Each structure stands twice: as C-alpha cells, then as structure tokens.
Amino acid sequence: MELLHKHRFLLLALAAVLLLPLLLKSGSLATEVLIYALAALACNVLLGYTGLLSFGQGIFFGAGSYALGIALTRTSLSMPLTLLLAMLVGALVAAAVGWLSIRQKGVYFVMLTLALAQMFYFLAYSLPDWTGGDNGLLNIPTLPLTAFGHTLLPNKTSWEYYSFVAIIFLIVFYLLQRIVESIFGRTLLAIRDNPARATAIGYNIRLFKLVAFMVSGATTALAGALYAMMTGIAPLTSINYHISETILVITVIGGTGNLFASVLGAALYVIASDWLSDLWPRWLLLFGLLLMVVSLYLQGGLWGLCELVFKRARGNRADSPAKEHKP
Predict the structure, then answer these.
(1) 95 near 213, Cβ under 8 Å?
(2) Ordered DSSP codes for 253-295
(3) How many CB atoms lie within 10 A of CB 300?
(4) Residue 38: its H or E element
(5) φ and ψ at 30, to 5 degrees?
(6) Considering 27, 53, 103, 231, which has the largest number of Cβ atoms within 10 A of its Cβ?
(7) What is the 3-state secondary structure of 52-86?
(8) 244 near 117, Cβ under 8 Å?
(9) Short-list 119, 99, 117, 103, CA closest to 54
(10) Whole-angstrom Cα distance, residue 280 to residue 250?
C-alpha cells in the first residue's frame, strides 16, 4: 500500500494514458493531449514549484520543433538522437533565457520573458534558410523508428505513434515527479514560498532557478519536437507567445504545484477544443469564462476542486458513524 501511495500520481498518469483511447477516436487527438500535457508539466515546474510566471515556454516549444526539423532535413541522425538533440537545444536556449530573465523579479521578469519570446520569433522569421521564414519548415521527413529489425511508426497519426508518445510521456512524468519530490524540488518550493529565508540559509537562488529553467526548457522542447514529428511541419507560429499563453492557461486551469494537474488541464483543453469548436466557433469564450472562475474561486485549479470534493466525501463518511452513535 505504501508503494501504491508513493507512486499514486504515476498510476493516475498511467490510467489517463490508458483511458484516452476510450474517450477519443482519433490517435492524433489523443497524442496532442499528451504533447500539451508534457508542455504543461514543464510549465508547472516553473510556475507551480519555482513561482516563475514565464512567457518563454513558446521559445522552447519552437526550439524543439525547429531542432527536430533541421536535424531530420539536413542530417542522417536517427529518431531517438533527434529527440535528444531537440531536448539539448531546448535546455541550452532555456539556460540563455533564464540567465537573462532571472536577474529580475515580478512584472519585470514577466516582461523580460515576453520580450525574449518576441525576439526569438523575429529571429526565426529572419533566418529563412534554416527556419523556412514565414512558412516555417515544411515536409519534415517521416523517419521510421526501427527496433530489433522491425520498422515502427509508419504513420504519425496512428495509435502506434500515440503508444510511442505515451511511453515517452510516462518516463518524463516519472522523472519530473522524482525531481520535484527530491531535495532539489523541496528547495525550489522554499525559494518560491520565502526567497529571503532561502537566501539567508545559503541557497544560490539564481542557480536553482536556472536549473529549473533548463529542466523546463528541455521538456517543452521535447513536446515541440514530438508535435513537429506528428504534423510534419515546424511552423513559425510554434515559437510565438500565443503558444506560451496556451501552455500557461492549461497549467493554471489544471492546477499548479501538482504534476498530474497538468495532465488534467491538457486533456480538458484539447478535448474541449475538439468537441466545442464544431458546435460553436467562439468556444474560446467559454474557456475564458472557465479561466475567470478558476482565477476568482478555484486557485488550486480543477485538481484543487477534485481534492476538495474528495476530502469532503471522506469527511462525510467519517462523520456518519459518529452521528449514528449519538444518544
């Protein structure tokens, strides 16, 4: 029981991965849920555990997409190596963005990440030989994954590709969960809650924030690379600040400070965008309303609401026998 309790969030993530094919008929849509969940996990490391409201997530997402696209069109690297290369590029870009932005706090930090996001967008636009300019990188080759003499993933929109992304997602989820539960993760929480005290104890706050940025950048770049691999393109829009907004909204609606909450937010966003967009073109108004409700009344996000309902249900069950024995 103790082992189950220790890995309860990983088991929840595994259950979500197994349930998605039952809820969604499209393999590409289910894969999109996991890709956005990966990006939201990375955002949660910054916002939920370090207290950094960053608008730079789109930079890392785009960096991963372009790194994979350039590697597949210009080199003969295998698929696993291109994914690792994308993560490395994301971590290096995040180190540069973090080194510049964590010098400031509050609104100035937010403005710095927003300004850097715009700069990277126009940098990608200005390098058409590498990034494809306004059109982005098109026709990224479909590189098959071979293992033990068998060719896998012939179709990137199939359930095979979903299975491939699901395995990567569960590995990353497990590693991030171990990170946030480690001494490093608890230090991030101390820096988030009381930076002055953490400094007085002797922690190098900037170094911890920089490492958190690199972890977040590598994970977001992986999400961008998987998205580019699925769609076969790395569009210029993959690096603009709208991607950062989407990832932030998913993270906040799901709930900060809990990694599984990011999965909840990603699933809601992708499924709602698929179902509601057919019913009402202006469905984002409903999502904006939900964001308002979460910001005003549910600051723990939907995960916080689930926890509240669960605690009250347990409380009612605990109170029931006591009431029966009242004289």
Answers:
(1) yes
(2) HH-SS-HHHHHHHHHHHHHHHHHHHHH-TTTHHHHHHHHHHHH
(3) 17
(4) helix 27-47
(5) -65, -40
(6) 27
(7) CCCCCHHHHHHHHHHHHHHHHHHCCCCHHHHHHHH
(8) yes
(9) 117
(10) 20
Q: In the structure encoding, which two tokens stand for residue 212, read together?
A: 């958190």
Dihedral of alpha carbons 271, 241, 125, 282, sign: positive
Q: Tokens 């002797």 correspond to what residue?
A: 202
Going from the C-alpha of 204 to that of each of 70, 101, 185, 192, 289, the distances in angstroms are 36, 16, 14, 13, 40
Q: Do 31 and 215 touch, CB atoms closer than 8 A?
A: no
Q: Is the four-CA dihedral 172, 178, 182, 187 of positive or negative sign?
A: positive
Question: CA 260, CA 285: separation in Å to the nearest integer?
Answer: 25
303: which residues sit within 8 A by CB, 6+ positions away?
Answer: 254, 255, 258, 260, 261, 264
Each residue's pLDDT, cut to its tens digit, for the chain (327 residues) gives: 666 677 788 888 888 888 888 887 788 888 999 999 999 999 999 999 998 898 889 999 999 999 999 998 888 888 889 999 999 999 999 999 999 998 888 888 889 998 999 999 999 999 888 888 888 888 888 766 665 566 666 556 677 888 889 999 999 999 999 999 999 999 999 988 888 888 888 888 999 999 999 999 999 999 999 999 888 889 888 888 889 989 999 999 999 888 888 899 999 888 888 888 777 777 778 878 888 888 888 888 888 888 888 888 877 666 665 544 444
Q: Is 27 exposed, middle or buried (0-12, 13-18, 19+ CB in 10 A)?
A: buried
> Residue 263 is encoded by which pair of tokens?
């999965």
Written as six digits, the tokens of 184 are 């490093």
- The amino acid sitting at 68 is L
